[in-house]
Specification:
Layout: H1 4-24, H2 39-53, H3 56-69, H4 103-116, H5 123-137, H6 157-163, H7 171-179, H8 185-192, E1 199-201, H9 207-210, H10 224-233, E2 244-246, H11 258-264, H12 271-274, H13 280-291, H14 293-307
Antiparallel strand pairs: 1-2
Helix pairs in contact: 2-4, 2-5, 3-5, 4-5, 8-13, 11-13
This protein binds protoporphyrin IX containing FE and 2-acetamido-2-deoxy-beta-D-glucopyranose (NAG) (2 copies).
The site of protoporphyrin IX containing FE (HEM) has 26 residues, from helix 3, helix 8 and strand 1.
Length: 330
Amino acid sequence: MIGTKQVIFSGFLVIFCLYNVGTEAQLQVGFYRFSCPSAERIVKEEVLNAFIQNNGVAAGLVRMHFHDCFVRGCDGSVLIDTVNPSSPAEKDSPPNNPSLRGFEVIDNAKARLEAVCARKVSCADILAFAARDSVEITRGLGYEVPAGRKDGRVSLSSEALANLPPPTSNVNQLTQAFANKGLTQEEMVTLSGSHTIGRSHCASFSNRLYNFNSTTSQDPTLDPNYANQLKAACPQGSTNPNLVVPMDPPSPATSDVSYYRGVLSNRGLFTSDQTLLTNQQTLSQVIQNSQNLFGWHIKFSNAMVKMGKIGVLTGNNTGEIRVNCREINS
Ligand code: HEM
Ligand SMILES: *[C@@H]1O[C@H](CO)[C@@H](O)[C@H](O)[C@H]1NC(C)=O
Ligand SMILES: *[C@@H]1O[C@H](CO)[C@@H](O)[C@H](O)[C@H]1NC(C)=O
């Protein structure tokens, strides 16, 4: 027979657990206030140090956070190195290799954080902070990052391929890919504005220059003058992985709205950029964003926070705090 005390005790346990589910399942701004007060400052310093060497890392880190969140949620899975070549990790999938960059910034921040507060700050949170700092440092709007993500223990190249929309996507495919992650079409347009910073490898758009489809070799929706510049930068058939072009040539390291202006003048680099003009709603958002820097900044910050909540692991009973962001704990 179960004693009264036990019943009462298990009742408390149940309530206690429910309470934890309620409080622990959510990310919190200032999560490391007590456990590692210098966490956000240290990440910011490392982003700044890296940015001074190469301002392109800011774009790299924003994209890395996106690619983390869309694959198994924001769990740092994109940071894990391949262990067994027969089952490559996310970072070795075509959407990520060789284009993703900034891993060393995360490593540097992690090394410092392990030195001051070992096993407290997750790699997924470090990446979320670094993405925010990268937006800020490129003159975007800073925002508070809810934190408390745990790191996952699985990273599969196949899942990156299945979840990240390719640059050949049309507006319906993009809308669907974002809807699959709980993001709206408008948030898709807002977040695409991230292509206002950074670069692209030729392979991501050369189909638009040389082998578009069976009737036309060049994408007719691409400004012909721009196409010629792109052809000069990306010779047909070149497989040189070092060839890159800025995605927003007027201001490649500034989070401004010139991306949207470019798209409006048929200078969006990818099909996935240009396609935003082919739908009434997305077209009208592109126009609005192109005319309203502050409005886009606000929407962008909010959308980044929302993206940062996709599929997160929180609480004590799931995930881990990785010691080395490239390896799951043994
Ligand atoms: C809408 C669907 C999207 C597609 C199809 C797409 C595709 C791409 C491609 C193909 C590149 C060039 C990679 C290379 O060849 O080097 C790129 C770069 C980039 N993307 Fe996206 N992207 C999308 C959405 C996003 C989102 C949501 C973000 C962030 C919130 C983002 C941020 C970036 C950044 C910052 C770069 C530059 C990276 C660098 O300079 O290293 N993209 N994207
Ligand atoms: C090729 O692309 C053009 C422009 O987008 C389009 O009008 C045409 O129908 C396409 N042809 C084929 C065979 O897909
Ligand atoms: C979760 O783990 C942390 C660190 O070990 C601990 O301080 C905290 O009390 C735990 N929370 C609960 C509700 O068990």
